[in-house]
Amino acid sequence: NPPADATTTKSATASPAAPAPGGKLYLQVGAFTDPAEADNLKARLALMGIEASAQRVEVPDKGTLHRVRVGPYSRPEELDAVRAQLAQAGIPVAVVKNR
Q1: What is the distance between the alpha carbons of residues 65 and 12, in angstroms, rounded to a whole number?
Q2: What DSSP designation does 60 have?
Q3: 50: exposed, middle or buried (C-beta count within 10 Å: 0-12, 13-18, 19+)?
Q4: Using an 8 Å Cβ cutoff, are 67 and 54 in contact?
Q5: DSSP tag of 3
Q6: Which of 4, 40, 48, 98 is the most exposed place for a label (fewest CB within 10 A)?
């Protein structure tokens, strides 16, 4: 059994990492000074079946922002499908790459 497990582990870890050599792609759907606004957008996305995360960042000349992102996506096809769904709902997005 141990050799089979080792082989399974190798193939499982090699496959997901392969499609994204330059980093993961995210869709940024908003950036707010008020964390409650970020939470509201996350809730709206959840009702659409889209899981989002909020990150607190310090931006020079703007202060603290709470940005809402969807992803990561390793394949452009996945990203485009969600971007189209968000566009239909009237939610503007920006594609960002995480290094």
Answers
A1: 36
A2: T
A3: middle
A4: yes
A5: H
A6: 4
Could you give phi then psi for residue 8, rounded to 5 degrees? Answer: -60, -45
Question: Residue 55: helix, strand or coil by DSSP?
Answer: strand
In contact, 66 and 42? CB cutoff 8 Å: no
Cα–Cα distance, 71 to 74 (Å, whole number): 9
Write down the pTM of the prediction: 0.72
Question: Which of 41, 43, 69 lies closest to 55 in space, CA to CA?
Answer: 69
Q: Give the type of residue at 62.
A: K
Which structure tokens are listed for 64?
């603290």
